[in-house]
Every structure is written in C-alpha cells, then in structure tokens.
Amino acid sequence: MLDNLISWIGSRGNTRGKSLSIPVFDGAFKPNSLLEEADILAEHSGFSDLVAGADNRLLAACENTVVEVSATGSLSEIAAFDRPVTALAQLSDGRLAVGLGDTVVIGVGTDAHVSIDTVDGRNLTAVTALYPAPEGGLLVCDGSKSYGCDDWAWDLMNNKKDGRLIALDAQGGNARVLASGLGYAFGAYTSQETGVLVSESWNHRVSHVADKRAGPAIDRLPGYPCRFAPAEGGGFWLSLFCSRTQLVEFVLKEKDYRTEMMATIDPRFWISPSFGSGSDYLEPLQGGGVKQMGILKPWAPPRSYGLLVRYDANLTPQYSLHSRVGGRHHGICAAAQVGDTLYALSKGSGRIVKMSILKTRATLFGENAA
Amino acid sequence: MMKTISRLRYKYWPDQIFGEILQKSWMETAVPLAVLIFTIVFFSTQIENFISPANLSDNFRQASELGFVVLGISLVLIVGGIDLSVASIFALCNLLVLYCMHVWQLPLPASIAITLVFGGLLGAVNGILIGYFRMRAFLTTMVTLIVFKSIHDLINVKVAVPISSNFPDSPMWDTMGYGSILSVPTAVWAFGIVALFCHILLTRLRPGWWLLAVGGNRRSAYNIGLPVNRIVALSYVASGALTSASAIFYAARLASPGADTGVGLEITVLTAAILGGIRLGGGKGSVMKAILGTLIILLLTNGLLRMATSAGTARIILATILLLAAALDIRWFKNRHKAVQEMYVSPAYLKLPEMPDDVAAPNAAFAPNDRLKNVETIGLGMIEAPEDVILDADDNLYSGNRHGEIIRFFAPDYKRHEVYARIGGQPLGMAFDAGYNLYVCVGGMGLYRVTADREVELITDETNRSLLSVIDDSRLKLADDLDILPDGRILFSEATVRYEMHEWQTDALEGRGNGRIILYDPKHKKTTTVLRHLTFPNGIVLGSDGQSILFAESWKCSIKRYWFDGPKKGDVEMVIDNLLGYPDNINVASDGNFWLAIMGMRSQVFDLAMRKPGFRRRMAKQLPGDEWLAPNINTGCIVKFNEAGEILDVLWDMHGENHPMITSMREHKGYLYIGGIYNNRIGRIKLDGADETFVSSGKYHVG
Question: Which stretches make up the Strictosidine synthase conserved region domain (chain B) (predicted)?
C-alpha cells in the first residue's frame, strides 16, 4: 500500500518507482565468446548489410556499392550507386533490391529497375532493411519518419515511434503499409509458420504483424533487435545490434539532460547504444567499465555489444552468440546462413565473420548435441 | 533563468547536511522528541492553561506512574518479548498494597516490599513460562492478563468494602500519593531515580548490555554464552516489579479498589513505548525513548480528555496512533539505511570550462600520441594498485599496494622485490625526508612514517574538527598526497571527508568541495586544517619559491597554488583552470617544471552531468554504482607543465595497454616511473635529455 503510494508519487516526476530493470543474459542468452572468436572473412569499414543469395552467393552492401564476397573474403563489385546502400535483399526471382536511405530500388543492374520513394503519401526516410516475401514481393522497413538511417540515435533520443513496415509486390507496385507507429522498424521476416515479423528496436521486441496491427511476438529482449536471416531447419537468426543498459533507459527518462546532450554534443559521444566503441577517449564510461589490474571486465555495462540469436519457428530462442565487452565484433546488424556456415556482419568493427554452425553447437551443447 | 535559480539553489542550499543528519544515531530519538513538541504546541494552542504549573505538576505525577509501567514493558520489548499482562498485574498490586495499608495496617515499607515482591512474582510466572518453557510471549501474557484479571475480580468483590471502610494513618503514605518534595511530586522523584538507574543499566552495566544483546540476536547471544533463558525471564520479573511500583503510587494517590483498575493499560503503555521508538522486534530502545513515549501518550490522553472527547473516541485515536507508529516503526527500521544511502549522496552544481573543440587535433596542446606505448614494465603481476611510486638514493623503487604493504623493488633491474613494510591500509602518496624516512599517506588511516630501519609509526590521524560540520570530520578518511616543506613541516591533502577510498566514484559524482589540505607541525605535534572545501585535492608538491605548494583539484580539472609562507601567505591562485582530464599527483621534474598525472579524461556527457545535479542525484538513486556514468579513467596521460600554467609536453598511452589510468609518476635519474591505482604494474620510460643525476625526493628533514 505504502509502496504503491510512494511509487505513484515517484512516477509523477522521475524520482523512483518506474523500474529501470532490463532483462539479463540467461537461458538461451547465456554469454559466450563465439562471435568474438569467429574467423574474419572480410574487413571494410563501410559494410552495412549482408544476405545469402539464391545461388549461395554471399552479397554485402558496402558504402555506395553492392559487392559479392568470395570464399576467401575478396570483394567484387556488382552494382554502384550515388549514395550509401542502407539495405539489401534478393527477391525470390533472383533480382536484387537495395535501400538507398530514402529510396528502394528493385531490379538493380537490370534495365527494368523501379525506384520507390513515397508510400501512402509519406516519403520513405530511412530504409533500414528489406526482406523478400515468398510470393515474390518485398518487405520494406522504413525506420523513422524524421531521421535518416545514419541519424538513428536522434530517433531514439527523441523517443520517436513512427517506423513503418511496407509490403511491395515484385514489380514495386501495390505498396501497402502493413504496420505503422513502430519503435524503429529495423528488420522484417516472413514465413509460413511465423507470419510477418518486424523488429522494433526501441521497444526491444519483435512484433507480429497482421491486419495493420503489430503485437508483441518476442518481448523484453536484452538488446536492440535488427535484421533477420532465414535459418536452415526452420526459424531464423535475429541480430541485435547492441545490448541494453540501465543508463540508457535512465537517460531516456531524463528529458532535460537529453535535450541539452543532443543540442551540444556530437552524437558519437552521446549516452546511447552504439555499434562500436573503444576508439575514442571522449566516449562515455560507466562505473563498471573501469579497467582493473589491466583488465576490462566482460560483464561491464556495454556501450556496444555483439549478439546474434537463433530462434526456432515457434519463436523460442535456442542459443546465442556473443562478443562481450572488451571484444571487437560488436554491432551485429546482419547475418546469413549458407549451408553449415554462418556469416555475421559486425558494423562496429567493419568485419564479416564466419563460423561453422555444427562446431558452434558442439561447443555450446557438447559433441553429441549436433 | 531557471538555470540560474537551479545553480544558486545547488550552490547555497546544503543538500548534503540532510543525509549526514539522518545518519546520526540520535536521529532515532529525535523523531519522538519532535512528536512530543508537536503535541505540546498543538494542545497549548487548543486548550487554555495547558502548560500551567498546576496542570504540569499533575501531568508529571501521572506520567511517572505510567512511566514505571512503560519502563517495565520497554525492558521486555528490548529483549524481544511483549508483556500484555501488565494491566492485570497493576490491578492486583493495587488491591494488595491497599489491603496491606488499609486492612492489615502494615507499616509503609513492609507494604511496599510485599507489593513489589508480589509484582515480581507475577512477572516471574510470565518469565518462567516464556523464558524457560519457551512459550510465545504474546499468547502467554494474554492468558496471564485474563487469569490475573479474573483473580482480581474474584478478590475485589471480597476486599473492596474492607478497604474502603478503613483508612491508614500514615502521613508518608499521603506524601507518596499527592505530596511533593521541593515542589516536585514524590512520584516524579521516585520515577526519576528508577529511570536514571535503568538508563545506567542499559548503557553502562553488563546486565543491560545482555538485555540488548539477547534482543538484538538471540542466537548470537546464546552462542557467546549468555544465559538467554534467565535474561528473558528476569526481564518479565522486572516488568512485574516496575508495574507494582506504579500500582503503589496509584493506590496512594486514589486509594480506590475499583473494578476496572488498569483496564486497557497494556494498550496505553505499548503505544507509549512504540511511539517513543522502542522496537517491537527487540534489540533497540532506551530509557529516554520510554520517557518521551510516556509523555506523548499522557499529554495526548489528557489533552483529548480536556477537549471533551468521549472515552471511546479517545481510545480510537490512541489505537490509530499505535497502528501508525507500529507501521512506521517497521518501515523506518527496515529502510533507514536505504534512506541514508539515498539521501547521503548529494551532487553539487559544477560547471567546468568548455572543452576546446580541437582536443584531439594533431597540433593541440593535448594531441594524443603513443609515447607511453613502449614503456618498460616493472613488477607485472607482482604488485597491485601502485598509487604512488618513489625511489631512494640507491635507486630502489618503492610503491604501496592494495594489500596494505609497501613493496620495494631492488635496483638496478627491479626484478626482485620484497615487502618493505606492512601498514594495514592502502598506501597512497609518498615522500622521503633527508634521512630517508618514508612519509606515506594511508587511505582510511592517516599520515604514517616508515623509518629508515623499517619501523611503521603513526604521525597523525586527526585534525581539528570544523565548527559547523555535522559529520565528525576530525578523523582522516582519505589522506592522499603529501610533500615535506623546507622548514620540516608536512602539508598533505585529504581528498574527501565524506567517503571512504573505494567510494571515490561517489565523490566524483557528487563533485562537491569535500576535501581539504592539512598541515602537520612536528615541532608541536599539531595537525591543523589550512584549506577547506576543495574538490578532491591531490598532488601536493612544493613550488620553486619554497613558500608555496601546487595542488590539483581533480573533479574541477584544475591546478592551484597555495602559499603557506612568505608575503603571500594564505593566498590561493589558479595555475591551470581547464585541463582535459582529472589531475592526480604532481611531482617535480629535473628541469624545474612539474610532472602531472592525469588519471582520466573528461567526456562531454560527464561534464554535462556535472551541470545537472538533479540528474546525477536520480542516477545515484536509481542505478547501481557499476551502471553510473563515470569519469573516463580508462585513458590517462602524463603532462609536463610550468608554474605559469603552460602545458609543455604530453605523454599518452592511447590504447591503454599498459597504463590506462595514471595516478602518479616520478622522475629519477633520467627515467620517469609511472604508477596507477587500478594497475598491476609500474612503468618506466627513458626521458631524453633529462638530468641523469636528478633525485626528486629526500631533500628536507622533518622536524
């Protein structure tokens, strides 16, 4: 009774009451160093998306180009644009689709390419992810109404929740808004078993989309979910580009501080999640992150983190791959599975890493588990 | 506008005092005292003559009668029990003493003695059942309450008439009832003496401590060999005896064998004890609290009576107060330390000058470089937390560690080491005198000396207490760095008086002037504080004129100069006001300039937080310490500067491989030795063109 009263009073101002607790890494999220120890396939600071093509080719978006990544890690250019490529997908008929920030181009490299920059009377602003629909169409994530792909931190710090999930047909026509008002749409997935799913990064959840409404399908994630990649044997890989910290949740409640921070400080040095960290001494540091006896504790509050989770078709997490605090392979924003090989794109380090799924499972569950 | 108001509020409103006051143990008594004062004020505005001498005298007489019972029940509560039977014991004793005096006409002392013993025996019934048979206190005393009451009712019918028809001829008896000694009622005298004895018992005598020990933790009390059963039983005996004392005065005053004597007394005294702040759970309580509770309850009942409140309403009000007091009692005791914790941290407004935009530009004064990357590593894994490093004339290297020792690495290769001295607290700043006695500031302990033949001696661990401080700041909590002055005195800094060494991060979050600089005069063996309200002062080093010291204020990112002697004695001047990091130790360089250790770099988000005290306060309350925004002490550097405040040179370990945090450095014979409190190694780097004979410490004699 007294507690309720106090917490009610507390919730009037930001004093106490409202819980700042965040989900911990347990169960399928138990930390390991598998991502950190993965082999490096290619390294380029401009990587932004990664897909496994229909014929098992590995394609990546890298700065203004789409490249094919060979088995040895060499990059060969497939297409080039005048702006950075922000999202990449291969349609079921083999044609490529790219997001160029505020435009979607379908049929890249062919004469019959189509550009879409307005849907339902609203301009596309931040095309963060594309996903091919089985019937030949394309799912498009428009992260925000107000901020472009590079300015996602502004979107978060302004507590914006106006992302959209859009469906296009194979010709780029018949655009339909499947869901709107999303807390940053940053990844979509569709399959027979799961229906249409969309990542809502700022809400820390994956939502199930049906009848123009998005309801939580995977809730209370310990990080910021982004793109999906289909996994063999059903289900998918979900990449989370950073894990949550209580400090960020706290700052999101502190309007005065946030306003002044946004007005006066370079976004690279804000208190916010990040794709990578450790490169500049002006970055914020949290108490647990102080190096002790020459060691940065892996359980320190992360500024950036690497996390990739395997979900089955029932949306149950199976296991996860981590690159913990002090590691390099942070900011995992895309993954691709080709046979037994899993590729992950770490935006923080600008690397594409690869690992054997069988070996990974053996490490996690013992030799007989595979 | 709002910003100015907020800034002024944080500048002049002493936030920190609330937490400090709350921490005091006398706060527990302060709450009932405040309630008492409030009660008095309330009724004196409502009722005329509420504090007239006649009324007061009457009130005190009644208060003393009630007080005996409250004292008794307090003893029981302290042991962790409860005694509901006091009401019936009171009624029976009232009958007995009246019968002794009126019917048997016994002399007064005999009557009193018989009644006291009888009360004690009744209490012993409770005591034996609860203490030795381990029965529940609440149930047992409730049963005895009913049984004793029934006995009383049976007897009362038979003895009421004989008592009322006889009157004793005893002036003493009358004096006890309504007489006064020196115009103070007799009952008050008696109660005063008993209360004083109980106070001494509880605070100064072994049996009293036993009571508190049993109530505090029965199992521990048993384990250390206390006769727990007997102590519990005796507390009920004491309760019974004290109740009978109360009954004697009551009988002397009213001489009434009424059927409803003492009805509801147990509720009144319980309310009094709990209102006074005596815990239901046991282990806590004092006579003062019992008295305060008694006074509150008595004034309250009498006040309500005189405001013509009906008996039922008054009961309800009392019961409500008891309920509230019990709820508050539980919440307060459970959460007080949390409240203290939350209230104690009180961030201040601290505006640092803007960081220059081009901090990392290649030509900027602080341009990052990797010159510390190739340091030679000494004692890797052999030393933990070398806050300061120092070398003697034979080039041996000394450093404190977090195990509370001073480690000596042997020249010339520093591969061998030994424990030079064991101190017990973490050694921080160090300095040699001319006889190579090592003076060392020890965190949590004070200023110590390790003589040349390795004897550890305390120099000083306290200074004069400041006049207006709430917390006792005479003890040294975090002596930090020192230097020996040419006249043999020692100036040293105390980084903060509000926190322990491991809580430095909280002090950083507070950003308040919690530190001071202290002067030790060995001639008179006197320690005096010379500068107060410094923000984490650090890095004491003698200036080139021999009349001043340079010191750093870490959280203010500035270097200042203080004159302890000469024409400018007492002055403080700014030397550098806008460092890019948090300065720590300062030491002299061979070319007459100064080396400065920067333990960590500023970040804009932390600077912004320092301008938002409310933000930091909420952060401290809502987040665990590991999640707090902290100064970035994972990247440090070493700076060379001169007395004019110019930055001459900067050495960085950009990637923090060897020296992420640097708290000290010392130049010695062409090398620079580097220490860091969170490091597990000491670094050494060759300085180009430095004086190869230069020794930084060991110039002056102390004394």
Answer: 480-566
ipTM confidence: 0.89
Question: From residue B113, how far is each of A287, B72, B96, B241 by CA, in Å?
Answer: 68, 18, 11, 10
Domain with B675, as residue range(s), is: 376-463+473-686
Tens digits of per-residue pLDDT, B223-237? 999 999 999 999 999
Print the domain residue range for A31: 23-279+296-369
In tens, the pLDDT along B363-403 reads 677 777 888 888 888 988 889 999 999 999 899 999 999 99
| C-alpha R_g of chain B | 35
Percentage of residues in chain B with pLDDT exceeding 90? 49
Asked whether residue B526 falls in the same domain as residue B588, the answer is: yes
Start-to-end CA distance of chain B, whole Å, equals 54
> Are B661 and A15 a contacting pair at CB < 8 A?
no
User: What's this model's pTM, rounded to 2 decimal places?
Assistant: 0.80
Asked whether residue A285 is assigned to any structural domain, the reply reads no
Report how many domains make up chain A: 1
Question: Average pLDDT of B485-489?
Answer: 92
Summarize pLDDT for B165-196 with one digit per residue, the tens: 888 888 888 888 888 888 888 899 999 999 99
- Kindly determine whether residue A290 and residue B630, on different chains, have CB atoms separated by under 8 Å: yes
Nearest chain B CA: its distance from A222 CA (Å): 16
B601 in reach of chain A (CB within 8 A): yes
pLDDT in tens, B40-95: 888 888 888 777 777 778 888 889 999 999 999 999 999 999 999 999 999 999 99
Q: Is the pLDDT of residue A13 over 70?
A: no
| DSSP per position, B446-502 | EEEEE-TT--EEEEESB-PPPTT-SS--SB-SBEEEEEE-TTS-EEEEES-SSS-GG
Nearest to B608 among A257, A287, A300 (CB): A257
User: For residue B556, what pLDDT band results from cuts at 50, 70 and 90?
Assistant: very high
Average per-residue pLDDT for chain B: 88
Name the DSSP class of B129.
Answer: I
Q: Measure the CA–CA gap between A303 and A244, rounded to whole angstroms.
A: 9
B317: burial class by Cβ within 10 Å (0-12, 13-18, 19+)? Answer: middle
**What are the tokens at B11?**
């500048």
**B536, burial (CB in 10 Å: exposed 0-12, middle 13-18, buried 19+):** buried
CB contact at 8 A, A191 and A313? yes
Phi, psi torsion values for A9, nearest 5 degrees: -60, -45
CA pair distance B627, A20, nearest whole angstrom: 11
Which CATH number characterizes residue A190's domain? Answer: 2.120.10.30
Contact (CB<8Å) B627/A15 = no
SS3 call for B508: helix
- What 3-state DSSP class applies to B205? coil
Encoded tokens for B532: 């107060």
Domain end marker among B342, B361, B395:
B342
- The token duo for B213 is 């020990």
B-chain CB neighbours of A153 within 8 Å are none
